[in-house]
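Re: [ENG-882] Designed sequences occasionally contain unexpected residues at chain ends

Forwarding the minimal case from QA. Structure tokens:
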């Protein structure tokens, strides 16, 4: 722009005379600034095709705690030779578009922020106090202020119903009844809309593609006891989610639906921030990765590598373990941790992602099928079905839905798994309504644009 303005004053005779007349350097500078402002306003409407004017350049901001995973092509599938399994899961070349991904698994403390939000939201509703609301919107609805916390001392009588009562109280303590911590949210089923709403001249009512969900958000802390028979893990059940010592450890005991709800809450919270700051252009939703996005990210841009660190071995040259898994029968601690360890333990892969092998397995959004590789598309391959935890899904009873649709792929292996399950290509599943002491998750967000290196 500066060059354009100077060219204007150099080549325009009237502008030259005006500057000579002004003479004073300050006035000359003011004239240049004024000309820049006029130039920046853009041309007047001449009836030509110009596009909508006044739109600012926009670059996708990096979400805190996430790293950029660039678009690329990779070969999905097993790293070692498995002749019989190759018939079900043949290796396949696939292209994945760019996305942001959490550099670590979601921690206890991060998930606790979600739980605390649900607690506070329910408390606001029960208090019905104006100090927790913004003024009414255009439709007369009161908007909740997400940054003001409820005063539990002031409203202890109104909030009594959120606590355990009667015989359920332990030693007279005031403790929140976790059965009441239900997160209500909405989402749009684009897949159903694409399949059913095909007549553009008689479009269907979009309300039928909007889904509402109610998910119990508190993690299953008893999974530590339930997962292992003839094993004493009660200490982990008692303190793992609560104690500050475990704040930076991966959250476990969350079902697929709870992980999905967390992503929805994270999205809604960020959307609320954009709207409070002048409806800035929003970003894509936070979500669980597809299993192919997960595998591509785990490989770190390498080709055919067996583990995220690249090499074919689970130990380095000094004999040290490179991940938190079960290397030997009965020996869980040789890698430095018996149970899960901090989410930033060990070295990250070439994308900057920690613990893509071991520590805890991770939920993906993909529905399980033994032969996903055989039919998945080679561009952002995915096989996904959202099934409610209970009740009806569309017109089908959940009990009548094929069992594979209720299974969701988990990747990465965990602290209690042998080396095979921490390979990049290894895959298995858990039922979406189960919670395990060895399954956590991390979020992704699709990148808007071709690449983060673009400047236009």
């Amino acid at each position: 722009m500066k060059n354009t303005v100077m060219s204007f004053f150099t080549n325009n005779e009237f502008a030259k005379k005006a500057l000579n007349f002004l003479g004073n350097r300050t006035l000359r500078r003011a004239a240049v600034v004024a000309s820049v402002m006029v130039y920046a306003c853009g041309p007047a409407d001449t009836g030509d095709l110009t596009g909508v004017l006044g739109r600012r350049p926009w670059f996708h901001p990096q979400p805190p705690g996430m790293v950029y995973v660039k678009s690329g092509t990779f070969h999905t599938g097993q790293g070692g030779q498995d002749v019989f399994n190759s018939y079900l899961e043949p290796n396949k070349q696939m292209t994945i578009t760019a996305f942001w991904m959490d550099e670590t698994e979601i921690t206890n403390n991060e998930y606790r922020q979600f739980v605390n939000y649900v607690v506070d939201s329910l408390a606001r509703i029960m208090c019905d106090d104006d100090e927790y609301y913004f003024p009414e919107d255009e439709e007369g609805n009161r908007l909740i202020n997400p940054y003001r916390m409820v005063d539990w001392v002031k409203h202890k009588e109104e909030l009594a119903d959120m606590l355990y009562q009667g015989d359920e109280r332990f030693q007279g303590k005031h403790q929140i009844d976790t059965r009441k911590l239900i997160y209500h949210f909405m989402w749009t089923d684009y897949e159903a809309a694409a399949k059913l709403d095909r007549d553009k001249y008689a479009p269907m009512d979009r309300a039928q593609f909007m889904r509402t969900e109610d998910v119990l958000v508190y993690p299953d802390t008893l999974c530590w006891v339930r997962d292992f028979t003839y094993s004493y893990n009660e200490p982990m059940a008692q303190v793992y989610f609560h104690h500050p010592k475990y704040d930076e450890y991966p959250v476990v005991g969350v079902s697929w639906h709870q992980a999905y709800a967390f992503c929805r809450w994270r999205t809604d919270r960020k959307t609320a921030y954009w709207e409070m700051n002048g409806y800035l252009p929003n970003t894509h939703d936070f979500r669980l990765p597809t299993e192919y996005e997960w595998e591509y990210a785990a490989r770190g841009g390498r080709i055919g590598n067996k583990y995220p660190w690249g090499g074919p071995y689970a130990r380095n040259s000094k004999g040290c373990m490179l991940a938190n898994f079960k290397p030997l029968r009965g020996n869980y601690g040789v890698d430095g941790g018996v149970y899960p360890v901090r989410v930033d333990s060990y070295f990250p892969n070439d994308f900057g992602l920690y613990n893509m092998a071991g520590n805890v397995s991770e939920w993906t959004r993909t529905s399980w099928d033994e032969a996903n590789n055989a039919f998945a598309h080679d561009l952002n391959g995915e096989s996904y079905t959202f099934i409610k935890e209970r009740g009806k899904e569309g017109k089908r009873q959940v009990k009548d839905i094929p069992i594979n649709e209720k299974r969701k792929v988990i990747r990465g292996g965990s602290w209690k798994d042998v080396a095979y399950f921490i390979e990049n290509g290894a895959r298995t599943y858990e039922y979406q309504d189960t919670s395990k002491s060895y399954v956590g998750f991390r979020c992704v967000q699709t990148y808007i644009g071709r690449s983060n290196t673009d400047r236009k």
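QA comment: On inspection the terminal residues look reasonable. Residues 1-10, 31-40 have pLDDT under 50 and may be disordered. Proposing we downgrade this to a documentation issue.
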